Amino acid sequence: MSEIALARQSAVEKSKPARGRPRDTEKNTAIIDAASQLFLENGFDGTSMDEVAKRAGVSKQTVYSHFSSKEQLFGDAIHITIEKYFPDEVLKNVEARTLEADLTSVATKFARLLMSKDAMAMHRVLVAAAHKGPGLAEIFWEAGPKEMIVKLAGFLKVWVDKGELEIDDLEKAAGLLISLLKGKLHFEMSIGLFDQVSDEALQAHVHDSVACFLKLYKKN
User: The whole model's pTM is what?
Assistant: First the structure.
């Protein structure tokens, strides 16, 4: 584990309440919601912990009792965005029909997350803050893309175990599928050519992405 990842893990541990004192989940949620809004409105550099406290309706001390740094808040805001669009229940409740049908269903949900306004806005915030060095980028990676890859790799393993996919490196394959799902549409959105994708265009894009993926990994 890198020094940055260790630092983030330490920050998460520091944000946990003392034993016997349950975390105030309502305040925690209010703080993350406020931070997410401010990051999208003002960027990472333009957001302060004072502003987060004011928007959340809590004291600055309360913010720091839940989150040790603005960087940790940024990571948690990304994590919440993923849970909003792609909760764990999505993978647990797949109908287990056919490989292509289930992969298309999961891929569609991933694509909706990737193309969501929240995800695109967070991506732009990260790009704008890239000058701060690799620390923020790694926090984004750990809370966002890496978590998505791990979730998708778990789904792919089910079909490897069933003998329908032939994959040596599950996380590599998951990363490739996510790259296919981003494709041209994500690039066009990231530079502001348009801000949303029609359902028809999204479904066509997902269909092509899944077809390419299965050509590589479907067991003959």
Answer: 0.74
